[in-house]
Amino acid sequence: MFSEIKQYLATVLAEYSGGDGYEILLKAKDEYFALTGTIHEENDEYEHKMNCFNDWFLLHYSTEKNGASIICDYLFRKEAPKEIMDVFKAPNYALFEFKKTNSKNQVVLKDVLHDKTILLPEMKIGLIEDDLFIGRTLTLDTERNYLMKGICVLPQDAKSVCAKQAKRVRKLHVPTEETTFLLTLEFLKTKWLRYGRHIDAKKIFVF
């Protein structure tokens, strides 16, 4: 199913990368950059930022009155199989810590926001142990998870304050507060980058 998930993501993104859907994509991009801060194309973080935007656009952005995400609306119109629809209906948008690769070559993530462990199949994750990042996982079944491409790695100096704030947000049990918190983290990361990374991140990541 991993290959099917990748194909659906690529197909839907391609549909909005030209033609009538392109204006929707551009409007969404403006909204996302307003929420998380602007990074220019020459910045070495730009590709990561665009990967995060693509994930947000596909899984969270909506033009429908019923609130359906871009990808769920597409799958409904194309009458995709129910098991595919279910995967995309409930993306796990969270603050993660990369713990290790275990003896079974599974990637072990700590979902800091929801206080749970997530296992991923063997993959090149491009992170080092203890890295804290914002991202999204999709649950394929009880034993298989898929990590989306968009990853926003946070500065190590801000790790403790971000983890503490995640715990406070978790106790609220309000999904919209979680989303606001995660988008705020992305905004603060962008702000930190604008200062040239030479400022103590704890002075930027203030809640």
How is this structure best described in words?
This protein is α+β, with helices and mostly antiparallel strands and 207 residues long. The protein has two domains: 87 residues, no CATH class; 113 residues, OB fold (Dihydrolipoamide Acetyltransferase, E2P). It is 45% helix and 16% strand. The protein is built from seven helices and six strands; from the N terminus they run αααααββββββαα. Strands 1, 2, 3, 4, 5 and 6 form a six-stranded antiparallel β-sheet that branches. β2 and β3 form a beta hairpin. The longest helix has 20 residues. It is globular, with a radius of gyration of 17 Å. The N and C termini lie far apart (40 Å). 29% of the residues are buried. The mean pLDDT is 95.
Fraction of residues in β-strands: 15-25%
CATH topology label of the largest domain: OB fold (Dihydrolipoamide Acetyltransferase, E2P)
The total tally of domains equals: 2
Shape-level CATH architecture of the largest domain: Beta Barrel
Cα shape? globular
The sequence of SSEs as H and E is HHHHHEEEEEEHH
Which percent range fits the helix content?
40-55%
**What's the overall average pLDDT, rounded?**
95
CATH superfamily of the largest domain: Nucleic acid-binding proteins
- Distance between the first and last residues' Cα: 40 Å
Question: How many beta-strand runs?
Answer: 6
Q: Count of DSSP helices?
A: 7
Rg over alpha carbons: 17 Å
Structural class: alpha+beta
